[in-house]
Amino acid sequence: MIMKRLAIYLYCGVICMACSSVSSYRKQMEAVEAVIEDYPDSAWIMLRDIPSSLLSDGEEKALYNLLMTEAAYKLYKPFKDDSLINYSITYYQQHNNQHRLATAYYYKGSINCDELENKEQGVLCLKTAEELAKEGDDELLRNKILEELCVLNNKSQNYETALVYSKSFLESSKILGKPEHIACAYERISNDYLGIGENDSAGQYIKKAIDYVESCDNRDKARIYANYANTLIQNKRYPEAKHFLEEAVKMRPKANEYVMLGKIAKQEGDTIGARKNWEKAITFGEPKFSLRAYKLLANMYIERGDYLQALWMVAKGDSINNVYQEQKRTSELAEVQLRYDKAVVEKDLTERKNFWLTLAVVAMPVLMIALLAIVYFVRKNKKYRGIIDQNIEQIYQDKQRIDILTSMGAEFEEEAKSLQEQMAKLKQATAMRLGSGKDIYEAVANGDRLYDFTKEKEQDFIDYYAFTHSDEFHTLVQPYRNLSLRHTSYLVMTQMGYGIKDIAAILNVTESTVRNYRHRIK
What we know:
Elements: H1 2-18, H2 24-35, H3 40-48, H4 58-74, H5 83-95, H6 98-114, H7 119-136, H8 139-155, H9 159-176, H10 179-195, H11 199-212, H12 218-234, H13 238-251, H14 255-267, H15 271-283, H16 287-304, H17 307-328, H18 330-351, H19 355-380, H20 387-407, H21 413-445, H22 455-468, H23 470-477, H24 485-495, H25 500-507, H26 511-520
Helix pairs in contact: 1-2, 2-3, 2-4, 3-4, 4-5, 4-6, 5-6, 6-7, 6-8, 7-8, 7-18, 8-9, 8-10, 9-10, 10-11, 11-12, 12-13, 12-14, 13-14, 14-15, 14-16, 15-16, 16-17, 17-20, 18-19, 20-21, 21-22, 22-23, 22-24, 25-26
Protein backbone atom coordinates (compact mmCIF):
# COMPACT_ATOMS: atom_id res chain seq x y z
CA MET A 1 0.00 0.00 0.00
CA ILE A 2 2.87 2.39 0.92
CA MET A 3 4.71 1.57 -2.32
CA LYS A 4 1.55 2.18 -4.34
CA ARG A 5 1.05 5.59 -2.71
CA LEU A 6 4.70 6.55 -3.32
CA ALA A 7 4.27 5.61 -6.97
CA ILE A 8 1.20 7.84 -7.19
CA TYR A 9 3.03 10.82 -5.69
CA LEU A 10 5.97 10.23 -8.05
CA TYR A 11 3.58 10.13 -11.00
CA CYS A 12 1.95 13.34 -9.84
CA GLY A 13 5.35 14.96 -9.42
CA VAL A 14 6.22 14.16 -13.04
CA ILE A 15 2.97 15.77 -14.18
CA CYS A 16 3.70 18.88 -12.09
CA MET A 17 7.19 19.22 -13.61
CA ALA A 18 5.68 18.93 -17.10
CA CYS A 19 3.35 21.85 -16.34
CA SER A 20 6.01 24.39 -15.29
CA SER A 21 4.20 27.31 -16.96
CA VAL A 22 1.18 26.88 -14.72
CA SER A 23 0.85 28.07 -11.07
CA SER A 24 2.04 25.57 -8.45
CA TYR A 25 -1.48 24.94 -7.10
CA ARG A 26 -2.83 24.45 -10.61
CA LYS A 27 -0.13 21.85 -11.21
CA GLN A 28 -1.08 19.99 -8.04
CA MET A 29 -4.76 19.98 -8.96
CA GLU A 30 -4.11 18.76 -12.50
CA ALA A 31 -1.98 15.98 -11.01
CA VAL A 32 -4.87 15.10 -8.66
CA GLU A 33 -7.28 15.07 -11.59
CA ALA A 34 -5.08 12.48 -13.33
CA VAL A 35 -5.30 9.96 -10.45
CA ILE A 36 -8.63 10.69 -8.72
CA GLU A 37 -10.62 8.11 -10.69
CA ASP A 38 -8.58 5.13 -9.44
CA TYR A 39 -7.06 6.52 -6.21
CA PRO A 40 -9.56 8.89 -4.56
CA ASP A 41 -8.00 8.40 -1.09
CA SER A 42 -4.61 9.66 -2.31
CA ALA A 43 -6.32 12.47 -4.22
CA TRP A 44 -8.13 13.53 -1.04
CA ILE A 45 -4.86 13.72 0.94
CA MET A 46 -3.21 15.79 -1.81
CA LEU A 47 -6.16 18.18 -2.01
CA ARG A 48 -6.15 18.73 1.75
CA ASP A 49 -2.55 20.00 1.40
CA ILE A 50 -3.71 22.82 -0.90
CA PRO A 51 -4.73 26.02 1.01
CA SER A 52 -7.99 26.94 -0.74
CA SER A 53 -7.86 30.53 0.54
CA LEU A 54 -4.69 31.16 -1.48
CA LEU A 55 -6.07 30.03 -4.85
CA SER A 56 -5.51 32.90 -7.25
CA ASP A 57 -8.47 32.95 -9.64
CA GLY A 58 -11.92 31.61 -10.44
CA GLU A 59 -10.64 28.75 -12.60
CA GLU A 60 -8.46 27.37 -9.79
CA LYS A 61 -11.29 27.65 -7.25
CA ALA A 62 -13.76 25.97 -9.63
CA LEU A 63 -11.40 23.04 -10.25
CA TYR A 64 -10.52 22.73 -6.56
CA ASN A 65 -14.20 22.64 -5.55
CA LEU A 66 -14.99 20.08 -8.24
CA LEU A 67 -12.12 17.78 -7.21
CA MET A 68 -12.90 18.10 -3.48
CA THR A 69 -16.54 17.19 -4.16
CA GLU A 70 -15.56 14.25 -6.36
CA ALA A 71 -13.03 12.85 -3.87
CA ALA A 72 -15.42 13.27 -0.91
CA TYR A 73 -18.25 11.55 -2.79
CA LYS A 74 -16.03 8.63 -3.86
CA LEU A 75 -14.89 8.16 -0.24
CA TYR A 76 -18.51 8.25 1.08
CA LYS A 77 -17.91 11.36 3.19
CA PRO A 78 -21.06 13.17 4.43
CA PHE A 79 -22.30 16.38 2.73
CA LYS A 80 -24.19 19.17 4.52
CA ASP A 81 -24.91 21.06 1.28
CA ASP A 82 -23.79 21.38 -2.35
CA SER A 83 -22.32 24.90 -2.15
CA LEU A 84 -18.83 23.82 -3.31
CA ILE A 85 -20.04 22.25 -6.54
CA ASN A 86 -22.47 25.11 -7.21
CA TYR A 87 -19.47 27.46 -7.55
CA SER A 88 -17.92 25.12 -10.12
CA ILE A 89 -21.16 24.86 -12.12
CA THR A 90 -21.52 28.66 -12.30
CA TYR A 91 -17.91 29.09 -13.43
CA TYR A 92 -18.00 26.37 -16.11
CA GLN A 93 -21.33 27.65 -17.46
CA GLN A 94 -19.79 31.10 -17.93
CA HIS A 95 -16.58 29.78 -19.49
CA ASN A 96 -18.09 27.02 -21.68
CA ASN A 97 -16.04 24.06 -20.36
CA GLN A 98 -18.49 21.31 -21.30
CA HIS A 99 -16.56 18.32 -19.89
CA ARG A 100 -16.09 19.80 -16.44
CA LEU A 101 -19.61 21.24 -16.45
CA ALA A 102 -21.03 17.78 -17.13
CA THR A 103 -18.87 16.33 -14.34
CA ALA A 104 -20.00 19.03 -11.92
CA TYR A 105 -23.68 18.42 -12.74
CA TYR A 106 -23.15 14.68 -12.22
CA TYR A 107 -21.75 15.12 -8.72
CA LYS A 108 -24.33 17.75 -7.79
CA GLY A 109 -27.06 15.32 -8.89
CA SER A 110 -25.51 12.38 -7.04
CA ILE A 111 -25.08 14.37 -3.82
CA ASN A 112 -28.66 15.64 -3.90
CA CYS A 113 -30.05 12.15 -4.53
CA ASP A 114 -27.82 10.18 -2.15
CA GLU A 115 -26.95 12.61 0.64
CA LEU A 116 -29.28 15.63 0.73
CA GLU A 117 -32.58 13.81 0.01
CA ASN A 118 -33.45 16.37 -2.68
CA LYS A 119 -34.21 13.82 -5.37
CA GLU A 120 -36.10 16.15 -7.72
CA GLN A 121 -33.12 18.52 -7.93
CA GLY A 122 -30.80 15.51 -8.22
CA VAL A 123 -32.67 14.00 -11.17
CA LEU A 124 -32.66 17.29 -13.07
CA CYS A 125 -28.89 17.65 -12.58
CA LEU A 126 -28.22 14.05 -13.65
CA LYS A 127 -30.34 14.45 -16.78
CA THR A 128 -28.47 17.65 -17.61
CA ALA A 129 -25.16 15.85 -17.08
CA GLU A 130 -26.33 12.99 -19.30
CA GLU A 131 -27.12 15.38 -22.15
CA LEU A 132 -23.79 17.23 -21.83
CA ALA A 133 -21.76 13.98 -21.65
CA LYS A 134 -23.54 12.64 -24.74
CA GLU A 135 -22.71 15.80 -26.70
CA GLY A 136 -19.09 15.76 -25.48
CA ASP A 137 -18.49 12.07 -26.30
CA ASP A 138 -17.23 11.41 -22.73
CA GLU A 139 -17.91 7.68 -22.30
CA LEU A 140 -16.52 7.27 -18.78
CA LEU A 141 -18.62 10.12 -17.39
CA ARG A 142 -21.66 8.93 -19.33
CA ASN A 143 -21.12 5.48 -17.79
CA LYS A 144 -21.25 6.91 -14.25
CA ILE A 145 -24.38 8.94 -15.03
CA LEU A 146 -26.21 5.95 -16.51
CA GLU A 147 -25.46 3.85 -13.42
CA GLU A 148 -26.67 6.58 -11.06
CA LEU A 149 -29.90 7.01 -13.03
CA CYS A 150 -30.62 3.28 -13.15
CA VAL A 151 -30.03 2.96 -9.37
CA LEU A 152 -32.21 5.98 -8.63
CA ASN A 153 -35.08 4.71 -10.77
CA ASN A 154 -34.86 1.23 -9.28
CA LYS A 155 -35.05 2.61 -5.74
CA SER A 156 -38.07 4.66 -6.79
CA GLN A 157 -39.68 1.53 -8.32
CA ASN A 158 -39.65 3.00 -11.85
CA TYR A 159 -38.41 -0.40 -13.01
CA GLU A 160 -39.11 -0.05 -16.74
CA THR A 161 -37.15 3.21 -16.88
CA ALA A 162 -34.41 1.72 -14.69
CA LEU A 163 -34.08 -1.24 -17.10
CA VAL A 164 -33.50 1.11 -20.05
CA TYR A 165 -30.71 2.87 -18.14
CA SER A 166 -29.13 -0.35 -16.83
CA LYS A 167 -28.94 -1.85 -20.35
CA SER A 168 -27.36 1.38 -21.61
CA PHE A 169 -24.97 1.17 -18.63
CA LEU A 170 -23.99 -2.35 -19.73
CA GLU A 171 -23.33 -1.25 -23.33
CA SER A 172 -21.23 1.66 -22.07
CA SER A 173 -19.28 -0.61 -19.68
CA LYS A 174 -18.45 -2.98 -22.55
CA ILE A 175 -17.20 -0.05 -24.63
CA LEU A 176 -14.94 0.97 -21.74
CA GLY A 177 -13.82 -2.65 -21.27
CA LYS A 178 -14.00 -2.42 -17.46
CA PRO A 179 -14.94 -5.83 -15.97
CA GLU A 180 -15.96 -4.34 -12.60
CA HIS A 181 -18.43 -2.03 -14.38
CA ILE A 182 -19.73 -4.93 -16.48
CA ALA A 183 -20.37 -6.95 -13.30
CA CYS A 184 -22.31 -4.07 -11.76
CA ALA A 185 -24.30 -3.55 -14.97
CA TYR A 186 -25.40 -7.19 -15.11
CA GLU A 187 -26.43 -6.96 -11.44
CA ARG A 188 -28.42 -3.75 -12.06
CA ILE A 189 -30.27 -5.38 -14.98
CA SER A 190 -31.07 -8.37 -12.79
CA ASN A 191 -32.55 -6.07 -10.11
CA ASP A 192 -34.74 -4.30 -12.66
CA TYR A 193 -36.06 -7.58 -14.09
CA LEU A 194 -36.92 -8.65 -10.53
CA GLY A 195 -38.83 -5.41 -10.12
CA ILE A 196 -41.04 -6.05 -13.16
CA GLY A 197 -41.58 -9.69 -12.16
CA GLU A 198 -39.39 -11.41 -14.79
CA ASN A 199 -37.54 -13.70 -12.36
CA ASP A 200 -36.02 -15.98 -15.02
CA SER A 201 -34.34 -13.06 -16.78
CA ALA A 202 -33.18 -11.72 -13.41
CA GLY A 203 -31.55 -15.07 -12.62
CA GLN A 204 -29.74 -15.19 -15.96
CA TYR A 205 -28.24 -11.72 -15.55
CA ILE A 206 -27.12 -12.14 -11.93
CA LYS A 207 -25.25 -15.31 -12.97
CA LYS A 208 -23.42 -13.26 -15.59
CA ALA A 209 -22.50 -10.74 -12.88
CA ILE A 210 -20.94 -13.53 -10.79
CA ASP A 211 -18.58 -14.31 -13.72
CA TYR A 212 -17.05 -10.82 -13.35
CA VAL A 213 -17.41 -10.31 -9.59
CA GLU A 214 -13.75 -10.89 -8.66
CA SER A 215 -12.88 -7.60 -10.40
CA CYS A 216 -15.13 -5.63 -8.02
CA ASP A 217 -14.31 -3.94 -4.73
CA ASN A 218 -15.84 -5.35 -1.54
CA ARG A 219 -18.79 -2.96 -1.58
CA ASP A 220 -19.97 -4.00 -5.05
CA LYS A 221 -18.99 -7.63 -4.50
CA ALA A 222 -21.15 -7.81 -1.36
CA ARG A 223 -24.14 -6.35 -3.19
CA ILE A 224 -23.79 -8.82 -6.08
CA TYR A 225 -23.40 -11.75 -3.67
CA ALA A 226 -26.58 -10.69 -1.85
CA ASN A 227 -28.60 -10.45 -5.06
CA TYR A 228 -27.28 -13.80 -6.27
CA ALA A 229 -28.28 -15.30 -2.91
CA ASN A 230 -31.81 -13.94 -3.45
CA THR A 231 -32.00 -15.87 -6.74
CA LEU A 232 -30.74 -19.02 -5.02
CA ILE A 233 -33.41 -18.66 -2.31
CA GLN A 234 -36.12 -18.44 -4.97
CA ASN A 235 -34.79 -21.72 -6.39
CA LYS A 236 -34.71 -23.25 -2.85
CA ARG A 237 -30.92 -23.64 -2.92
CA TYR A 238 -30.66 -22.53 0.70
CA PRO A 239 -27.14 -23.76 1.71
CA GLU A 240 -25.54 -21.98 -1.27
CA ALA A 241 -27.56 -18.84 -0.61
CA LYS A 242 -26.50 -18.86 3.04
CA HIS A 243 -22.82 -19.11 2.01
CA PHE A 244 -23.03 -16.06 -0.29
CA LEU A 245 -24.99 -14.03 2.29
CA GLU A 246 -22.46 -14.76 5.02
CA GLU A 247 -19.66 -13.65 2.69
CA ALA A 248 -21.61 -10.47 1.85
CA VAL A 249 -22.15 -9.67 5.54
CA LYS A 250 -18.41 -10.01 6.22
CA MET A 251 -17.65 -7.43 3.54
CA ARG A 252 -20.59 -5.04 4.06
CA PRO A 253 -23.37 -5.85 6.55
CA LYS A 254 -26.76 -4.56 5.35
CA ALA A 255 -30.38 -4.99 6.43
CA ASN A 256 -31.39 -6.91 3.30
CA GLU A 257 -28.82 -9.63 3.94
CA TYR A 258 -30.11 -10.20 7.48
CA VAL A 259 -33.72 -10.39 6.21
CA MET A 260 -32.69 -13.17 3.82
CA LEU A 261 -30.58 -14.97 6.43
CA GLY A 262 -33.65 -14.94 8.66
CA LYS A 263 -35.74 -16.54 5.91
CA ILE A 264 -33.15 -19.30 5.49
CA ALA A 265 -32.98 -19.90 9.26
CA LYS A 266 -36.79 -20.14 9.36
CA GLN A 267 -36.71 -22.62 6.47
CA GLU A 268 -34.17 -24.71 8.41
CA GLY A 269 -36.44 -24.71 11.47
CA ASP A 270 -34.24 -22.34 13.46
CA THR A 271 -36.89 -19.86 14.66
CA ILE A 272 -34.55 -18.29 17.22
CA GLY A 273 -31.96 -17.62 14.51
CA ALA A 274 -34.66 -16.25 12.22
CA ARG A 275 -35.92 -13.86 14.92
CA LYS A 276 -32.38 -12.64 15.73
CA ASN A 277 -31.60 -11.98 12.06
CA TRP A 278 -34.85 -10.06 11.48
CA GLU A 279 -34.35 -8.02 14.66
CA LYS A 280 -30.80 -7.26 13.46
CA ALA A 281 -32.20 -6.07 10.10
CA ILE A 282 -34.47 -3.61 11.91
CA THR A 283 -31.50 -2.02 13.72
CA PHE A 284 -30.15 -0.65 10.41
CA GLY A 285 -33.08 1.77 10.26
CA GLU A 286 -33.83 1.15 6.57
CA PRO A 287 -37.65 1.50 6.27
CA LYS A 288 -38.04 -0.87 3.31
CA PHE A 289 -36.30 -3.79 5.02
CA SER A 290 -37.60 -2.97 8.50
CA LEU A 291 -41.12 -3.32 7.10
CA ARG A 292 -40.24 -6.73 5.64
CA ALA A 293 -38.67 -7.84 8.93
CA TYR A 294 -41.69 -6.76 10.99
CA LYS A 295 -44.02 -8.57 8.58
CA LEU A 296 -41.96 -11.77 8.79
CA LEU A 297 -41.86 -11.55 12.58
CA ALA A 298 -45.63 -11.03 12.66
CA ASN A 299 -46.18 -14.14 10.53
CA MET A 300 -43.87 -16.16 12.77
CA TYR A 301 -45.83 -15.11 15.88
CA ILE A 302 -49.11 -15.96 14.13
CA GLU A 303 -47.80 -19.47 13.45
CA ARG A 304 -47.06 -19.78 17.17
CA GLY A 305 -50.56 -18.55 18.04
CA ASP A 306 -49.20 -15.41 19.74
CA TYR A 307 -51.61 -13.01 18.03
CA LEU A 308 -51.09 -10.04 20.36
CA GLN A 309 -47.33 -10.09 19.71
CA ALA A 310 -48.06 -10.38 15.98
CA LEU A 311 -50.30 -7.31 16.15
CA TRP A 312 -47.56 -5.44 17.98
CA MET A 313 -45.10 -6.24 15.17
CA VAL A 314 -47.61 -5.00 12.56
CA ALA A 315 -48.24 -1.80 14.54
CA LYS A 316 -44.48 -1.15 14.68
CA GLY A 317 -44.29 -1.72 10.93
CA ASP A 318 -47.12 0.74 10.34
CA SER A 319 -45.31 3.36 12.41
CA ILE A 320 -42.47 3.46 9.87
CA ASN A 321 -44.57 2.92 6.75
CA ASN A 322 -45.14 6.64 6.21
CA VAL A 323 -41.36 7.21 6.24
CA TYR A 324 -40.92 4.50 3.63
CA GLN A 325 -43.65 5.90 1.39
CA GLU A 326 -42.03 9.33 1.58
CA GLN A 327 -38.64 7.87 0.66
CA LYS A 328 -39.96 6.11 -2.43
CA ARG A 329 -41.52 9.20 -4.04
CA THR A 330 -42.08 7.11 -7.16
CA SER A 331 -44.47 9.21 -9.19
CA GLU A 332 -42.68 12.50 -8.42
CA LEU A 333 -39.34 11.24 -9.77
CA ALA A 334 -40.96 9.78 -12.85
CA GLU A 335 -42.66 13.13 -13.46
CA VAL A 336 -39.36 15.04 -13.09
CA GLN A 337 -37.66 12.83 -15.69
CA LEU A 338 -40.66 13.11 -17.98
CA ARG A 339 -40.55 16.91 -17.72
CA TYR A 340 -36.85 16.98 -18.51
CA ASP A 341 -37.13 14.62 -21.49
CA LYS A 342 -40.06 16.62 -22.80
CA ALA A 343 -38.04 19.85 -22.51
CA VAL A 344 -35.20 18.30 -24.54
CA VAL A 345 -37.64 17.14 -27.23
CA GLU A 346 -39.31 20.56 -27.41
CA LYS A 347 -35.94 22.26 -27.82
CA ASP A 348 -35.10 19.97 -30.71
CA LEU A 349 -38.46 20.61 -32.36
CA THR A 350 -37.97 24.38 -32.06
CA GLU A 351 -34.62 24.13 -33.85
CA ARG A 352 -36.40 22.33 -36.70
CA LYS A 353 -39.10 25.05 -36.85
CA ASN A 354 -41.87 22.46 -36.52
CA PHE A 355 -42.58 22.88 -32.82
CA TRP A 356 -46.31 23.62 -32.75
CA LEU A 357 -47.33 21.17 -35.45
CA THR A 358 -45.35 18.27 -33.98
CA LEU A 359 -46.48 19.06 -30.45
CA ALA A 360 -50.12 18.88 -31.56
CA VAL A 361 -49.50 15.49 -33.18
CA VAL A 362 -47.54 14.11 -30.22
CA ALA A 363 -49.51 15.60 -27.32
CA MET A 364 -52.82 13.83 -27.94
CA PRO A 365 -51.53 10.21 -27.83
CA VAL A 366 -49.22 11.10 -24.94
CA LEU A 367 -52.15 12.49 -22.96
CA MET A 368 -54.24 9.43 -23.77
CA ILE A 369 -51.41 7.11 -22.69
CA ALA A 370 -50.91 9.16 -19.51
CA LEU A 371 -54.64 8.97 -18.74
CA LEU A 372 -54.68 5.21 -19.28
CA ALA A 373 -51.52 4.88 -17.15
CA ILE A 374 -53.16 6.85 -14.32
CA VAL A 375 -56.29 4.68 -14.47
CA TYR A 376 -54.14 1.53 -14.50
CA PHE A 377 -51.97 2.78 -11.64
CA VAL A 378 -54.95 3.67 -9.44
CA ARG A 379 -56.62 0.34 -10.13
CA LYS A 380 -53.41 -1.64 -9.69
CA ASN A 381 -52.65 -0.04 -6.34
CA LYS A 382 -56.15 -0.36 -4.89
CA LYS A 383 -55.49 -2.49 -1.81
CA TYR A 384 -57.88 -4.88 -0.15
CA ARG A 385 -58.66 -3.63 3.36
CA GLY A 386 -60.18 -6.25 5.61
CA ILE A 387 -61.42 -5.90 9.18
CA ILE A 388 -58.02 -6.91 10.59
CA ASP A 389 -56.24 -4.19 8.59
CA GLN A 390 -58.84 -1.62 9.68
CA ASN A 391 -58.46 -2.66 13.32
CA ILE A 392 -54.67 -2.40 13.17
CA GLU A 393 -54.92 1.10 11.73
CA GLN A 394 -57.37 2.06 14.50
CA ILE A 395 -55.05 0.61 17.18
CA TYR A 396 -52.17 2.68 15.79
CA GLN A 397 -54.30 5.86 15.77
CA ASP A 398 -55.49 5.16 19.33
CA LYS A 399 -51.88 4.70 20.46
CA GLN A 400 -50.91 8.08 18.99
CA ARG A 401 -53.94 9.73 20.63
CA ILE A 402 -53.09 8.17 24.04
CA ASP A 403 -49.52 9.50 23.79
CA ILE A 404 -50.83 13.00 23.06
CA LEU A 405 -53.35 12.90 25.94
CA THR A 406 -50.72 11.60 28.37
CA SER A 407 -48.36 14.44 27.47
CA MET A 408 -51.13 17.03 28.12
CA GLY A 409 -51.25 16.43 31.87
CA ALA A 410 -53.44 14.98 34.64
CA GLU A 411 -56.70 16.55 33.47
CA PHE A 412 -56.70 14.26 30.42
CA GLU A 413 -55.74 11.16 32.38
CA GLU A 414 -59.28 9.73 32.48
CA GLU A 415 -59.75 10.13 28.74
CA ALA A 416 -56.40 8.45 28.09
CA LYS A 417 -57.31 5.58 30.42
CA SER A 418 -60.68 5.08 28.69
CA LEU A 419 -59.01 5.04 25.28
CA GLN A 420 -56.40 2.58 26.59
CA GLU A 421 -59.17 0.18 27.65
CA GLN A 422 -60.89 0.58 24.28
CA MET A 423 -57.63 -0.17 22.47
CA ALA A 424 -57.01 -3.27 24.62
CA LYS A 425 -60.47 -4.64 23.71
CA LEU A 426 -59.84 -3.97 20.02
CA LYS A 427 -56.49 -5.78 20.23
CA GLN A 428 -58.14 -8.76 21.86
CA ALA A 429 -60.94 -8.87 19.28
CA THR A 430 -58.41 -8.65 16.42
CA ALA A 431 -56.33 -11.44 17.93
CA MET A 432 -59.47 -13.62 18.13
CA ARG A 433 -60.25 -12.94 14.47
CA LEU A 434 -56.70 -13.92 13.51
CA GLY A 435 -57.04 -17.12 15.50
CA SER A 436 -60.39 -17.94 13.88
CA GLY A 437 -58.99 -17.20 10.40
CA LYS A 438 -55.96 -19.40 11.04
CA ASP A 439 -58.15 -22.35 12.11
CA ILE A 440 -60.27 -22.08 8.95
CA TYR A 441 -57.21 -21.63 6.72
CA GLU A 442 -55.61 -24.78 8.15
CA ALA A 443 -58.87 -26.69 7.66
CA VAL A 444 -59.00 -25.57 4.01
CA ALA A 445 -55.31 -26.43 3.55
CA ASN A 446 -56.09 -29.95 4.81
CA GLY A 447 -59.08 -30.25 2.44
CA ASP A 448 -61.60 -30.51 5.31
CA ARG A 449 -65.29 -29.88 4.64
CA LEU A 450 -66.55 -26.58 6.15
CA TYR A 451 -69.96 -27.28 7.69
CA ASP A 452 -70.37 -24.08 9.72
CA PHE A 453 -68.88 -21.56 7.28
CA THR A 454 -70.79 -18.42 8.33
CA LYS A 455 -70.20 -15.03 6.69
CA GLU A 456 -68.25 -13.93 9.76
CA LYS A 457 -65.96 -16.96 9.55
CA GLU A 458 -65.58 -16.52 5.81
CA GLN A 459 -64.50 -12.92 6.43
CA ASP A 460 -61.99 -14.17 9.04
CA PHE A 461 -60.60 -16.69 6.53
CA ILE A 462 -60.14 -14.05 3.81
CA ASP A 463 -58.66 -11.48 6.21
CA TYR A 464 -56.20 -14.03 7.61
CA TYR A 465 -55.06 -15.01 4.11
CA ALA A 466 -54.73 -11.35 3.08
CA PHE A 467 -52.74 -10.62 6.25
CA THR A 468 -50.31 -13.55 5.94
CA HIS A 469 -50.02 -13.62 2.11
CA SER A 470 -50.41 -9.89 1.39
CA ASP A 471 -48.44 -9.70 -1.88
CA GLU A 472 -50.00 -12.84 -3.40
CA PHE A 473 -53.48 -11.80 -2.29
CA HIS A 474 -53.16 -8.30 -3.74
CA THR A 475 -52.01 -9.73 -7.09
CA LEU A 476 -54.90 -12.21 -7.01
CA VAL A 477 -57.78 -9.76 -6.43
CA GLN A 478 -56.33 -6.67 -8.13
CA PRO A 479 -57.85 -7.34 -11.60
CA TYR A 480 -61.41 -7.55 -10.21
CA ARG A 481 -63.87 -5.05 -8.76
CA ASN A 482 -66.54 -5.47 -6.06
CA LEU A 483 -65.80 -9.12 -5.26
CA SER A 484 -68.24 -10.77 -2.86
CA LEU A 485 -66.99 -12.81 0.11
CA ARG A 486 -67.76 -16.10 -1.64
CA HIS A 487 -66.10 -15.07 -4.91
CA THR A 488 -63.01 -13.97 -2.97
CA SER A 489 -62.95 -17.30 -1.12
CA TYR A 490 -63.17 -19.09 -4.48
CA LEU A 491 -60.15 -17.13 -5.79
CA VAL A 492 -58.14 -17.82 -2.63
CA MET A 493 -58.87 -21.55 -2.82
CA THR A 494 -57.82 -21.66 -6.48
CA GLN A 495 -54.62 -19.87 -5.42
CA MET A 496 -54.12 -22.63 -2.84
CA GLY A 497 -54.20 -25.19 -5.68
CA TYR A 498 -57.76 -26.52 -5.49
CA GLY A 499 -59.93 -27.32 -8.50
CA ILE A 500 -63.71 -27.08 -8.87
CA LYS A 501 -64.40 -30.52 -7.40
CA ASP A 502 -62.24 -29.90 -4.31
CA ILE A 503 -63.71 -26.44 -3.69
CA ALA A 504 -67.24 -27.83 -3.94
CA ALA A 505 -66.39 -30.48 -1.34
CA ILE A 506 -64.77 -27.96 1.04
CA LEU A 507 -67.64 -25.45 0.79
CA ASN A 508 -70.26 -28.21 0.91
CA VAL A 509 -71.92 -27.05 -2.35
CA THR A 510 -72.41 -28.57 -5.80
CA GLU A 511 -69.81 -28.35 -8.56
CA SER A 512 -72.25 -26.36 -10.73
CA THR A 513 -72.46 -23.75 -7.94
CA VAL A 514 -68.67 -23.41 -7.97
CA ARG A 515 -68.69 -23.05 -11.77
CA ASN A 516 -71.24 -20.30 -11.30
CA TYR A 517 -68.84 -18.51 -8.91
CA ARG A 518 -66.18 -18.63 -11.61
CA HIS A 519 -68.46 -17.26 -14.36
CA ARG A 520 -69.77 -14.39 -12.20
CA ILE A 521 -66.34 -13.02 -11.26
CA LYS A 522 -65.67 -9.87 -13.25
